[in-house]
Amino acid sequence: MTFCPLLLPALGALGISLVALDPALAQDAAAPTVNKGDTAWMLVSTILVILMTIPGLALFYGGLVRTKNMLSVLMQVFAVFSLVSILWVFYGYSVAFTSGGEGMLGAIVGGFGKAFLAGVTTDSTADTFTKGVAIPEFTFIAFQLTFACITPALIVGAFAERIKFSAVMLFTGLWLTFVYLPIAHMVWFSEGYLFGLGALDFAGGTVVHINSGVAGLIGALLIGKRIGYGRDLLAPHSLTLTFVGACLLWVGWFGFNAGSNLEATGGAALALLNTIVAPAAAGLAWMTVEALHKGKASLLGIASGAVAGLVAITPAAGLAGPMGSIVLGLVAGAACYFAVTGVKNALGYDDALDVFGIHGVGGIIGAIGTGIVAAPSLGGYGVGEYSIGGQVVTQVIAVVVTLVWTGIGSLVLFKIVDAIVGLRVTHDQEREGLDLADHGERAYNY
Q1: Is the pLDDT of residue 7 over 70?
Q2: What is the DSSP letter of 163?
Q3: Burial 339-359 (b: 16+ CB within 10 A, else e)
């Protein structure tokens, strides 16, 4: 049935509903609207997050290791991305973002109703934060795939230069299944435990950063220090490549944070702006503290500070005002500097590329700080009857749950991997370098 638009006001004045005249319109009225602009933005955001991982993270990490281990880091990041992509569409998406049934089990982990993407078509949709507005489900699947890929890729930096490639691959598959997917389900799925508590995590402070940071620390402790750590110079072989990687990370992070708005609206613009000012403030804070502490400001320092700021603003990107984001960045930049220098040196662990010091510590600061900077009274965009104290308590609970889950889970999984394939290469292989020992190649032939 079709109607002339000019008749609509008249029908309304008579109290006649189009739905009453044609019941088929009821279904159309209830169907969510898919906007091509939102969809285009989410597709671009997905590509940006891929840029963060390959090549961004790979080059950032690769430049920080010694020449003889450059290819091993590139290979690990690339292979982890590839493996997780396949596992995500096999069962990862279903376990993270479908209902797991009633009770506590369903609040912790999802089911297998969409394993191998069963039932997903080009017409199926996924909800956004606006009622009645949706995006294609394939778009949401691809976007969340990139988060699942970068998280275990972050972990490899903690034990770079001494872990077996086979151990990286086996650990990645197990860790995605038993650690990442439950945390993602608890935090981001509507029936998840932490989601139900009201924990705020806009783009992955707990799911991505605390999760990977703690797993990296556990791995570094279990695998042990690199040969010569604390005695020999284990300097980065190319800060130029690290700088290029850091820039790609920053650019890609706009998809990470602003894409998590799921729509091309003012919320995405807010998240994008916060993703500029928070890392800028953090980089300046790290640089300043370093100059006061060591007498000189370094390129590696300002780049590391910017990454710390990106980590800290991630859970608050669409919830904090720009001024709150700057404060969060300043705190994260200074705190992560002391975590990477003072705390690590005092405790003596070899977190090769400072995964815990930046992602773990920065993630904790960001997750808890979100409860403060999201407050409407401080220029934030928290909803409902917002209580800073109450929200901070909820954020602390989310942090503790993540710390415990990933801490215990990672410890158990590393032990399993060690029993099956072993975690560490031999001393001779480590001295030779993993490029040749694991892959039979050299990064540079001269």
Answers
A1: no
A2: B
A3: bbbeebeeeebbbbbbbbbbb
Question: Which band of pLDDT confidence, cut at 50, 70 and 90, is reported for residue 360?
Answer: very high
Say which residues have a Cβ less than 8 Å from residue 182's Cβ, sequence separation at least 6: 95, 108, 109, 405
**Tell me: the pLDDT tens digits for 116-147?**
999 999 999 999 999 999 999 999 999 999 99
Among 39-43, 251-255, 311-315, 345-349, the least confident range? 345-349
Element (H, E) at 126: strand 125-127
Q: What is the DSSP letter of 313?
A: H
Residue 8 has pLDDT above 50, yes or no: no
* CA distance readout (Å), 243 to 23, 306, 321, 392, 430: 60, 11, 28, 35, 26
C-alpha 96/C-alpha 88 separation (Å) is: 9
C-alpha distance from residue 70 to each of 62, 245, 305, 432 (Å): 5, 13, 23, 12
Mean pLDDT of 292-305: 97
Q: Which of 222, 183, 193, 166 is nearest to 412 (CA)?
A: 222
Strands 133-136 and 125-127: what pairing? antiparallel
| 3-class DSSP state of 135 | strand
Contact by Cβ (8 Å): 309, 279: yes
Q: Alpha carbon of 61 to those of 14, 73, 186, 430: distances in Å?
A: 68, 7, 30, 18
